[in-house]
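As agreed, record copied across for absentees:
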Amino acid sequence: MHTHSPTTLRTFLLTAISILVALPSQAVDLVTNGKPVADIVIAADAIKATRTCAEELQRHLLAMSGATLAIVDKPSDAPNHIYVGASEHTQKLGISVDDVKLDGYKIIAKEHHLVLIGRDVFHSQNHFAPYTDRAHDLSQKTWETMTGHKWRTPSFYGGGGYNKECGFILYDATGTLYAVFGLLEQLGMRWYMPDEALGLIRPHHDSISIAEQSVTKEPEFGQRRFADNQPGVYRQEMMWYKSMGVGTSKVIPIYHAVGRLTYFGKEADPAYFGIINGKPNYNSPKLTSEKLRADFITSLNFTRQVYPGIEYDSLGQPDGWSSIDSADAAAGFDQSERGIYGNFSNYAWDFNLDIVKRISAKIPERKFTVMAYSGTTIPPTTVDKIPDSVLVGLMQHSTGWMLPQWSGDLAVRQEWLKRMNDGREQLLIMDHYLEQAHIRNAPPAPVFFTKFMQANLKAAYDHAVGYDIEVPWIPSNEIKPDATNNLRRPGLSHLMIYLHARMMWERNLDMQATLDEYYRVFFGPAQAEMKQFHEFGEAVWSRPEAREVTANGGFLKQADIDQFFALLTAAKDKTGNSIYTKRIALLEAEMQPLKGLFANLQRNNGGIAGYWSHLQPKIDGDFTKPFWTDEGRVFTPLSEMFTGETPHHISTKVAFRWLPDDSGLVVAIECIEPKMDKLRADCKDRDSYAIFNDDTVELRLETAKGIRPFIVINPNGTVLDECVTTRSEDLASFYTVKNIAVKKAADRWFVEALIEAKPIEGQVPSKAFPWGVNICRQRMAGNAPEFYMLFPSGTKFKDPKAMGNLIMRR
């Protein structure tokens, strides 16, 4: 934020206090002893959005004082006037926003007038008309007729989010509305949560006077987006976001644009897709395809026709991209050695720069957006400087910076900035605050990360165009008929959104003072207990342990849950029958499922026994050796993943042994295969996700300490191995299973693997401390993919609850 007059939180509070004490002679009176002494003046031809600003000011002043200030289009005989938005009246006063950056605003109080004016840019009208109504959005049928292709419609954030009642979309630049809320904040109003009944704090004032002032306030970033699947549908939630200054100074579209061409899979042009193992792979765009490149440029031409005036073309990669065309991989584009966050970067940027070059040759002033996430998160090795016309949307995971896989996000951001001339124009930071979203299926625990947030924003000031944050939305099956907001678990979600929004306007925000004010005004007599609740919640969330909670592992423990509810109970004991109690009760209700969490996490799929061995084997894939045949112990068959039935045309069997020196677990998997010549085993790179296109066996384990290795092996012995650990220091940076053997026979193939106990802190599985286990065979040699599991669990194979218990017998 850039201010030309003091506007810190302390100044706001002092200004609010001054309402109740002696005021200087130049103060502008709005209400005196409950009676209006000012009117609200807007332009005679004011658009709906400006009228909304006036109405919002009117209703909040009424709620604060009991006085209704009239909305007029020319000053009345009232002694004072509030001018909302630009008009002939503000022109006569010589006040404009020509000198205001981005979508900032001014508050000017002087000589019987108060001016609330901001830079307003209505993208909804400039670019998205006539598609400003869900009923009249650009339809799929219209788009296909227009383009002559089976392409999905462009994914802009325009039409569907238009709110007729307000007259704008959430991401419109509404500087005048920000000025209205800036004034109300001076009067002590705080809007922490979308539901007004619980989240809005409006102090009562019999008289309201505004001290003389000339304030200019500008956001730190031009892009300030919190995205869900229905942005701005509900007026109340719209106004909550706007009260925090959410909006965008210009439209920067960034979405899976290439994926709009590949979306329909088999119905799309086959030239768009990679060929892997001799077959089209619809999750693999063939980015070297001339047909795809030419058609993509054509689709962008049509997009400009539909949404005119936008500076940028989006070149975003398809979502769910998982592999590279075999020929392109052979040509060197698959860089598996760069890991899962960089293996596709060079491939994507070969495509991106070619598209930029072709379009720029015809439209030199054109700008572009590209995505850096998943396999393209890390910068390409082939590009030293990003063209000035290209903006990169970099995906980060700041809520998980305590974990090894995401702790390097800021370093990756710095690597991108080294390749840019001006991050303020070329870097958009994308993030997910989705821990309370239904798609995460996570326990409803507090997720507070103020320290990470401060580090995140501090590194972004002067180096980014802004933020695009995805927040949790309410799925259709949870929406209530009287819904007024779309934010899921608002009691748990609101505070981090509020703080992030504040920091996008004020780089010197005093975080602790802001939090202390929140505890005081939002929880009243329970401020001490609720401060302890939030600080304890941040400490629990910040543990460098797995986010996924299981019976034996994860960041959250039963003792934490007990402490959370004890603090909430202690808080309610202080608040009696009050609004503070209702706010605490909302948190309690949202967190209620935690009380049964660990009871429900017990594995429910039965168990399987392995055996101690008195022999130390050679791992060679030979299951006829005494290590496996001793005492005539049999192998256990796998069953169909959904039905649990044992197949007749093939067979898969497993067995387990514990080594006599207590050093590890040995697993044997025998795969009967009548079509050995059809086995698919094209992946040859270790730790490549391309292995999931092959015939594989996948072993998932969970030790008694909650460490969860999983190992995937194909018939050629290629391995992908990873591990989820409760503490980052438990494992080396890369988990590796060193001793695996694959052997083939005429009608079957064998896998023998030694899982060392020490790297995963594994004690021998016992009745008291069993391990979790499940095994899946993926068969691709048949006419269609087939899946067989040790503990059939359908699509929940990865869920630790779907595991069975593994114990060792002597």
Q: What stands out?
A: Residues 48-65 form the longest helix (18 residues). The radius of gyration is 30 Å. Residues 46 and 87 are 8 Å apart (CA to CA).
